[in-house]
């Protein structure tokens, strides 16, 4: 059940519409955009899970758009496409701008679909983690991060230079807020799993 | 390393008579005898003849067949002299006379071998054909004449032994006679035998050139006659000038005909009853004319050959340049095609799926469109792999070269827009590590926009160092209308920026009042960042 929207951003409106329709035929919700600003404006109102973005677009290119997007919502997956592929760009797209894939035009349909599907699943996990941990205090978040990496109460107390007793309290609060039952479920949650 | 035995074997093999040489030697002996006899009217005291065509035959054979035939020509000539009775078959001087008879062929072989050897080693204007032939044609008679000195010292029985006036006259007379013979007879023989330095495919002389050369020759001869009538004697200077002019203008063939004309005019006169001293003097003049004319013709032909070689190299360079341009263009075309093709391929695939159940003619059409779109997509991917980053590896590239290449590629647009491209000279030490084709493309795209937008038909490109970067600026003036803000970047500009960023650089726009200026910065090579 993919309720999240996939935004297709390309200054070539025909191609944007075509890719959006292709995704819709696969049962995904998709919408085409021509301008990067339109997508950024739509972020709060639409639940966007994945964005397929062209790299060479007018004044704001795909990478500048990626930075603007990350600042607003880090849980949206990004897939880049380009008609002018370079090795340097491919590396940058994935490393620096958190792109899931870098597609050359003409687009390979199967690869596009798998990238978008993967992107939506990644976004879903990020949102679930964000949702579950949004109620944490700063200290609870620190304890949670260490806990799910397998550290004991004693180790966490040493690392954060607080008493083991305080760690116990934070841990109880974490369990209460996430309504989980035990460490295993906490770890599953930290990975964005489906329980 | 060769042992002495090996060397001996090679030498023997080299000098050995081949079966194919035998008829040649027979004909040679006959022709040599005839030409030798024909030279008699120009004889004098101390030398055989001042006009010795047999030397030309000897030289032509040696030049064409190689110096290895020298010993066999020596033998042939000796036999001819013995048969005709020119040299004694008995008496106390048989051996010295025989050595004297073999001297010319030996000297000619040595001269030909020497010039060939020098040509194979050296480079320069003198080794460019047909200069070696020209040089050998002069060196052989001179060398043959010089060999008279040691032989004369061995002959105490002859009058005027040692360095004496008669010896000088003998040397001069010999050299002059041989030289005239070689330069008049050898060239046509070599041309007809198809030797290496024939001016192949030589264009037929144009009538205008023929008439001009004839007129010049005639004028100079008239001048000679005028000087003669004035009591100044037969002066060679006018003919030297005419020969030099004709040779330099029209090459060896024209030079040879000029030589032939001179010789045909003067030899009948000198064959007549003139004194030995006068004859020698006249022939010295003729020799000067012939030598200058021949060398001028050879030099002109060598220049022509060098120019042809240069033209050929330039054509190859031009082709390589065009190929580079073509590849840069194909990269741009691939980009332009791949955008709409993306749409086409996806829609075609969809159409095929949706029409599969419809009547066959529709379904087949849709399937065909889909298949062709796929083929085209695959082609674009393959072309990109071929002409893209792999084929254009980054290399150290001087910025000045980049600007020049871009300037060449822009030539057609500049002409079309009557636009002037000002390439501000850049420091030669600005070097970037770049994919040449792509970076050139980026620059060309920027300049194209500038050419199209320029209000005063001028576009300026400059490159300056800025810290550890080079800043290439493309600027043009625009009309006073406000710049179209937000009109978006053209696809060319987008590509230029992509390329700049792929090279670790930037593309920015810094306009002034009525000036549009794009700055492409790139990291300089060899600077740690």
CATH class of the largest domain in chain A: Alpha Beta
Computed CA radius of gyration of chain A, to the nearest angstrom: 20 Å
Q: Which range does the strand content of chain A fall in?
A: 5-15%
**Strands of the biggest beta sheet of chain A: in what spatial order?**
2-1-3-4-5
Shape of chain A: elongated
CATH superfamily of the largest domain in chain A: Response regulator
Strand content of chain B: 5-15%
Number of domains of chain A: 2
In N-to-C order, the SSE pattern of chain A is: EHEHEHEHEHHHHH
Instruction: Give the overall silhouette of chain B.
Output: elongated
| Overall pLDDT score of chain B | 82
Low-confidence stretches of chain A: none
Q: Based on the structure given, which CATH architecture of the largest domain in chain B is correct?
A: Orthogonal Bundle
Please state the second-level CATH architecture of the largest domain in chain A.
Answer: 3-Layer(aba) Sandwich
- What is the makeup of the main sheet of chain A? 5 strands, parallel
**How would you classify the quaternary structure?**
heterodimer
Please state the structural category of chain B: alpha+beta
Distance between the termini of chain A: 16 Å
Measured as a percent range, the helix fraction of chain A is 40-55%
Helix segment count of chain A? 9
Largest interface: A-B, 27 and 33 residues
Protein name (chain A): Response regulator
Modified residues (4-aspartylphosphate) (chain A): 54
Keywords (chain A): DNA-binding, Phosphoprotein, Transcription, Transcription regulation
Organism (chain A): Novosphingobium beihaiensis
């Amino acid at each position: 059940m993919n309720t999240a929207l996939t935004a297709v951003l390309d200054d070539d409106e025909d191609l944007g519409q075509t890719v959006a329709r292709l995704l819709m035929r696969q049962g995904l919700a998709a919408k085409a955009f021509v301008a990067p600003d339109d997508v950024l404006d739509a972020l709060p109102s639409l639940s966007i899970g994945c964005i397929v973005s062209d790299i060479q677009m007018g004044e704001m290119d795909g990478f500048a758009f990626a930075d603007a997007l990350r600042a607003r919502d880090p849980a949206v997956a990004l897939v880049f496409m380009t008609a002018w592929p370079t090795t340097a760009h491919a590396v940058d797209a994935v490393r620096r701008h958190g792109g899931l894939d870098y597609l050359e035009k003409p687009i390979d349909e199967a690869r596009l679909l798998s990238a978008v599907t993967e992107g939506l699943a990644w976004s879903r996990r990020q949102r679930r983690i964000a949702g579950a941990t949004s109620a944490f205090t700063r200290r609870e978040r620190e304890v949670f991060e260490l806990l799910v990496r397998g550290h004991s109460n004693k180790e966490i107390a040493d690392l954060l230079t607080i008493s083991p007793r305080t760690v116990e309290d934070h841990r109880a609060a974490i369990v209460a807020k996430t309504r989980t039952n035990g460490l295993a479920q906490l770890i599953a949650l930290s990975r964005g799993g489906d329980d | 390393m060769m042992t002495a035995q090996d060397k001996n074997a090679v030498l023997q093999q080299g000098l050995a008579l081949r079966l194919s040489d035998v008829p040649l030697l027979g004909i040679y002996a006959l022709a040599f005898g005839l030409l030798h006899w024909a030279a008699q009217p120009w004889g004098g005291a101390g030398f055989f003849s001042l006009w010795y065509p047999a030397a030309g035959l000897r030289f032509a054979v040696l030049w064409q067949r190689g110096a290895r035939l020298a010993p066999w020509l020596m033998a042939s000539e000796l036999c001819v002299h013995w048969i005709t009775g020119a040299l004694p078959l008995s008496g106390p001087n048989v051996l010295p006379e025989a050595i004297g008879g073999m001297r010319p062929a030996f000297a000619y072989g040595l001269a030909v071998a020497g010039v060939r050897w020098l040509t194979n080693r050296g480079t320069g204007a003198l080794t460019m054909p047909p200069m070696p032939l020209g040089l050998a044609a002069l060196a052989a008679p001179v060398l043959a004449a010089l060999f008279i000195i040691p032989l004369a010292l061995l002959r105490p029985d002859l009058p005027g032994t040692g360095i004496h006036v008669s010896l000088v006259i003998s040397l001069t007379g010999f050299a002059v006679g041989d030289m005239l013979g070689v330069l008049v007879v050898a060239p046509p023989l070599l041309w007809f035998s198809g030797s290496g330095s024939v001016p192949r495919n030589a264009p037929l002389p144009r009538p205008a050139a023929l008439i001009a050369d004839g007129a010049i020759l005639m004028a100079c001869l008239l001048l000679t006659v005028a000087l003669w009538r004035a009591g100044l004697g037969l002066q060679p200077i006018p003919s030297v000038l005419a020969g030099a002019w004709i040779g330099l203008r029209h090459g060896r063939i024209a030079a040879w005909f000029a030589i032939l004309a001179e010789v045909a005019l003067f030899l009948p006169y000198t064959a007549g009853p003139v004194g030995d001293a006068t004859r020698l003097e006249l022939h010295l003049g003729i020799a000067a004319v012939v030598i200058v004319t021949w060398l001028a013709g050879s030099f002109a032909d060598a220049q022509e050959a060098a120019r042809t070689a240069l033209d050929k190299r330039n054509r190859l360079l031009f082709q390589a340049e065009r190929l580079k341009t073509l590849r840069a263009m194909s990269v741009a075309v691939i980009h332009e095609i791949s955008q709409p093709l993306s749409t086409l391929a996806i829609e075609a695939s969809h159409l095929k799926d949706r029409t599969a159940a419809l009547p066959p003619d529709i379904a087949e059409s849709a399937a065909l469109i889909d298949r062709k779109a796929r083929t085209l997509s695959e082609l674009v991917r393959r072309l990109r792999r071929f002409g893209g980053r792999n084929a254009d590896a980054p290399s150290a590239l001087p910025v000045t070269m980049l600007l020049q290449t871009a300037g060449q590629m822009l030539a057609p647009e500049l002409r079309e827009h009557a636009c002037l491209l000002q390439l501000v000279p850049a420091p030669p030490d600005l070097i970037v590590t770049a994919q040449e084709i792509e970076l050139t493309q980026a620059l060309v795209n920027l300049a194209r926009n500038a050419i199209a937008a320029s209000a005063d038909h001028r576009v300026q490109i400059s490159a300056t160092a800025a810290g550890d970067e080079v800043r290439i600026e493309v600027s043009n003036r625009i009309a006073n209308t406000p710049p179209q803000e937000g009109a978006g970047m053209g696809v060319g500009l987008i590509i230029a920026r992509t390329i700049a960023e792929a090279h670790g650089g930037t593309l920015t726009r810094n306009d002034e009042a009525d000036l549009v200026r794009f700055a492409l910065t790139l990291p300089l090579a060899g600077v740690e960042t």
